[in-house]
Amino acid sequence: DAMVIQNPRYQVTQFGKPVTLSCSQTLNHNVMYWYQQKSSQAPKLLFHYYDKDFNNEADTPDNFQSRRPNTSFCFLDIRSPGLGDAAMYLCATSRDTPGVLQAEAFFGQGTRLTVV
Amino acid sequence: DAKTTQPNSMESNEEEPVHLPCNHSTISGTDYIHWYRQLPSQGPEYVIHGLTSNVNNRMASLAIAEDRKSSTLILHRATLRDAAVYYCIPTVSGNTPLVFGKGTRLSVIA
Q1: Chain A positions in Cβ-Cβ contact with residue B103 (cut-off 8 Å)
Q2: Residue B43 and residue A4: Cβ atoms within 8 Å?
Q3: How many CB atoms lie within 10 A of CB A64?
Q4: Interchain contact, A33 vs B97, CB within 8 Å
Q5: Please, what sign has the CA dihedral across residues B110, A112, A46, A97?
Q6: Do A102 and B46 touch (CB under 8 A)?
Q7: What was the pLDDT predicted at B28?
Q8: How confident is the model over A35-94, as pLDDT tens digits?
Q9: In whole angstroms, what is the distance from residue B47 CA to residue B37 CA?
Q10: What pLDDT does residue B80 have?
Q11: Separation in Å, CA A23 to CA A7, B18, B53
């Protein structure tokens, strides 16, 4: 059974039209991450939530926002998608404790975003 | 973050062992070495991790150099399903997120 679920698998949006990608988890993990992966590139961390604390990467554009209403769900909002935002968006979770080994991260299958 | 160097691509015949190298010469004493892989059209998945000693699990073995400046992921018998991009990722303890390098694209030939 899938433990990190991303919906939809494929999303087409219009240039400039806000779009929201969703991620849910059944693992009760306290950390959730969003990565962007463009074609033939490695996943790039956008931001993550450690419990309710939001951590934004310094080079993540302001166009990208995130919400985590509860432990199980996390959303990625792209306020005004541009053609350059077309990519695979990956959600991941882990259970982390300060001072303890980075636990195994579990990834969803991703949402492939197309901007037209 | 410790820098890593991996070959861009490697090729293996099916049923043969594969040794995937990773250099991480700037690794600190408390950094663990994680390996993840990403199958085509999938999210990354955990393979193995270690600190100093060699490690084995059902998927692979991890051999860590004595000076910890490099490590090798060993797939004992490559199958077609092992074709993927393999990422070597040093991580510190705690809540440091995974930072992916370019990885090695492994092709397996039948």
Answers
A1: 42
A2: yes
A3: 19
A4: yes
A5: negative
A6: no
A7: 81
A8: 999 999 999 999 999 999 999 999 999 999 999 999 999 999 999 999 999 999 999 999
A9: 7
A10: 97
A11: 7, 35, 36
Locate A46 and state its tokens. Answer: 């956008």
**Shortest CB distance from B94 goes to which of A44, A98, A109?**
A98
The residue of chain B nearest to residue A90, with distances taken between CA atoms, is B43
Distance CA B2, CA B34 (A): 12
Say whether B93 and A100 touch across the interface (CB within 8 A). yes
B83-110 pLDDT, tens digit each: 999 999 988 655 578 889 999 999 999 9
Q: How many Å apart are CA B38 and CA B104, to the nearest integer?
A: 10
B28-61 confidence digits (pLDDT tens): 877 889 999 999 999 999 999 998 889 999 999 9
Rounded to whole angstroms, how far apart are CA atoms B80 and B103? 18
A-chain CB neighbours of B34 within 8 Å are 102
A interface test, pick of B92, B98, B99, B104 with most A CB neighbours within 10 Å: B98
Closest CA to B89 of A96, A101, A111: A101
> B40: closest CA among B76, B89, B85?
B85
| Closest C-alpha among B32, B35, B25 to residue B74 | B35
Tokens of B14: 């099916």
Residue B68 backbone zone (phi > 0: left; psi -120 to 50: alpha; other: beta):
left
Dig out the tokens for A27 from the structure: 């693992």
What's the pLDDT score for residue B27?
A: 85
